[in-house]
Specification:
single chain; 547 residues; Rossmann fold; 7-stranded mixed β-sheet; 58% helix
């Protein structure tokens, strides 16, 4: 045989590589080349089927072109005329099998779909060293036959055997079909490949050596520099004993089947290697923040935050303003209620909770500029993550990063209405409101006192003594002082309300951005992460499948 690139592989190792390739096919799915993935799936199925067969046989196929003498060589190795020989036209239309040893090979031949079977008797020629016990030798139809069915049958069986013996002759050893379509295509199978230059009796010893040397040169160009070339003549028996010895070596190792299957796994894995990258790119914090910013604008968060600011000021003035003008403020609708986001109830299930499930906010639809910003942020994210990935994976990333616009808008709206925009009323509201009521009551007492004094004077009734503070009577001080202090307190409350409104708006903005971040994770980052996880799983599985 040739170099032992995959020799010595154990059954568990072979099955582990097979399952790894199956995992890669499952995780890679549509992102793998369909033709290569289909071939790999066939290899997985073949390995499972071949390793599931009982017995310890080695299947060797004699394959070659018309006139190469495969059937004659087959008979020479067996030691009797088993296969029909044709001088000019191919006579082998279906494979024939010769089986050495008493172990039952019927299940294996059924799997190979080889109907013509011959049990080699115990007295047949044996190699000088070693044994052919367990050998299943196949004589295949010509791979260059004019009959399409013959070529198809040869290729079908070649896909299933353990060892290839390419039989050629001095006239066709340089044939491009042999080298390009078969030998070079199976360069990864050098450890289970043997080449035979037959019909050596037609050449002088010097010519035979020259042909063999040129054939080895061509094999080196095919990538099989270490493959052995055996020169034979089925007519004279020259080289047949060496060929038997080589076949005995293949049988003795009991590893040819696993080596062939491992080579198939290597070939299938190599064909898929270009469908995955060496690594995956994550999403940078800058890109993630850019996406959340764009979604926040599209969700109308600036509008909500502005409404929260104005709503806080509205409530602050309503609770701490001058009592004589508060009723005017109460006639104005609260900004958050205009957006169907405000709620003052304290029940366990609020109106906002219901809206988060079945309702909608009254926020305006995203503007064209906001939608364009979301599209741009999504494309940037897709480009960043897809950098270095093969085309199919790149397309999958871009698709995952670009969800349906209407679904995304609905998710953002639900995220907004499901976020509480309420917070406990500040303590100072109650203090300021109480002081305002006290000052209003003071002014009202002063007013009533002055009215009472005026009424007594108008009726010319005796007036009680009125206390004074300096030159000013106390009733006047109560009235004017209560009014002025109330106005000053209202102005101070407005200043404090401005500070509180900004803090409240900042708090709600953080809540809303958190909700938008959750939508971004669910609708964009999550799906992109799934694609990357599948790519990573596929890449790692292919690495395990390579062994």
């Amino acid at each position: 045989m040739g170099s032992a690139r995959v020799a010595g592989i154990t059954g568990p190792q072979l099955l582990a590589r097979t399952e790894a390739l199956a995992d890669a096919l499952d995780s890679g799915a549509a992102q793998l080349d369909p033709a290569a993935a289909g071939r790999a799936r066939q290899v997985v199925d073949k390995v499972r089927a071949r390793t599931g067969l009982t017995g310890d046989h080695t299947v060797v196929a004699l394959a070659g072109a018309t006139g190469s003498g495969k059937s004659s060589l087959f008979n020479a190795v067996v030691g009797s005329a088993v296969a029909t020989i044709g001088a000019r036209r191919p006579t082998t239309s279906t494979p024939s099998a010769a089986v050495w040893g008493e172990q039952d090979a019927n299940a294996l031949l059924d799997w190979l779909d080889v109907a013509t079977r011959y049990a080699v008797p115990a007295g047949s020629p044996r190699p000088a060293v070693g044994s052919l016990e367990g050998l299943v030798l196949l004589d295949l139809p010509d791979f260059d036959s004019r009959e399409t069915s013959h070529r198809a049958e040869a290729e079908r069986v070649l896909d299933l055997v353990d060892v290839f013996v390419w039989v050629t002759d001095p006239q066709k050893y340089a044939d491009a079909r042999l080298h390009d379509d078969y030998v070079a295509a199976l360069a990864t199978h050098a450890s289970v490949t043997l080449v035979v230059l037959n019909h050596a009796d037609r050449l002088t010893p010097t010519e035979a050596e020259q042909c063999a040397a040129d054939l080895r040169r061509l094999l080196t160009m095919d990538g099989l520099a270490e493959v052995r070339v055996v020169v034979t003549s089925a007519a004279t028996g020259a080289g047949v004993e060496e060929l038997r010895g080589r076949l005995a070596n293949a049988v003795a190792g009991r590893n040819a089947a696993r080596s062939r299957l491992a080579a198939d796994l290597t070939s299938a894995t190599n064909a898929l290697a270009g469908d995955v990258a060496d690594r995956e790119s994550g999403v940078s914090a800058k890109t993630r923040d850019g996406l959340v910013d764009a979604l926040a604008r599209a969700a109308g968060i600036p509008t909500v935050v502005s409404a929260v600011d104005r709503d806080y000021r509205h409530q602050a003035v309503e609770r701490t303003g001058w009592p004589f003008t508060r009723w005017v403020r109460s006639l104005r609708p609260r900004p958050l209620r205009r957006l169907r986001l405000g709620d003052d109830t304290a029940t366990s299930v609020t109106e906002a909770d219901v809206r988060s499930v079945v309702g909608r906010s009254s926020l305006p639809s995203p503007s064209p500029a906001a939608r364009a910003a979301v599209d741009l942020a999504s494309r940037r994210l897709g480009e960043e993550v897809a950098d270095g990935l093969p085309v199919r994976w790149s397309d999958a990333v871009h698709d995952a990063a670009s969800p349906d616009g209407r679904d995304l808008a609905d998710a953002l709206d639900q995220g907004v209405v499901g976020t509480s925009v309420r917070a406990p009323a500040p303590f100072w509201w109650g203090v300021a409101g109480g002081l305002q009521l006290l000052l209003a009551a003071t002014a009202f007492v002063g007013l009533l006192w002055l009215v009472l004094l005026s009424a007594l004077g108008w009726l010319h009734l005796p007036q009680p003594s009125t206390p004074s503070w300096g030159p000013l009577p106390v009733p006047f001080l109560l009235l004017v002082g209560g009014l002025l202090a109330g106005v000053l307190l209202a102005l101070l409350s407005r200043l404090l309300a401005g500070v509180g409104a900004r803090r409240r708006a900042s708090l709600i903005e953080r809540r809303l951005r958190k909700a938008v971040s959750a939508v971004a994770q669910d609708r964009v980052l999550g799906p992109v992460g799934v694609v990357l996880a599948r790519h990573e799983a596929t890449r790692q599985a292919l690495g395990r499948a390579k062994g």
